[in-house]
Amino acid sequence: MIAIVLLVAGLLLAAAELASGDFWLLMLAGGALAAAGVEAAAGPGAYILDAVVFALVSTILVWLLRPLLKRRFTVPLVKTNAGALEGRPAVVLAEVGPDSGLVKIGGQEWTARPYFPAERFGPGEPVVVVEVDGATALVQRGV
């Protein structure tokens, strides 16, 4: 009877993993299925053995298998749109000051102003985009 409960618990945990996607529940499901196998093989009443197998298998899976699965199936965060411009080099086209400016970033012209308001950049000067505020690139001296 306990083997059936552990089997159902393992299957439910594996199904719940589809909603979380973090691979914790899948590791617990592996422990529950291993404990169900031990319960079926050892016979009823091996509760302590079941608990030890569950804990041991779940722990081993969390330490060894979960990091491999995370590396394999986790998609890295890719910045898009204006967020992708942060850190990119730019060239000043028209003087950049606290109130106005124009830079060229990857072939596109953007309005710009200095990240630190006291700075000014002249035409041709290399700068780096620190942040994008609306349609304006906030820049600082290039490295």
TrEMBL record:
NfeD-like C-terminal domain sequence ranges: 83-140
Gene3D superfamilies in UniProt: Nucleic acid-binding proteins
Keywords: Membrane, Transmembrane, Transmembrane helix
GO CC annotations, alphabetized: plasma membrane
Membrane protein topology class: Multi-pass membrane protein
Compartments where found: Membrane
Pfam families: NfeD
Signal peptide: none
Database matches in InterPro entries: Membrane_assoc_protease (IPR052165), NA-bd_OB-fold (IPR012340), NfeD-like_C (IPR002810)
SUPFAM superfamilies xrefs: NfeD domain-like
Transmembrane segments: 44-65
Protein name (database record): NfeD-like C-terminal domain-containing protein
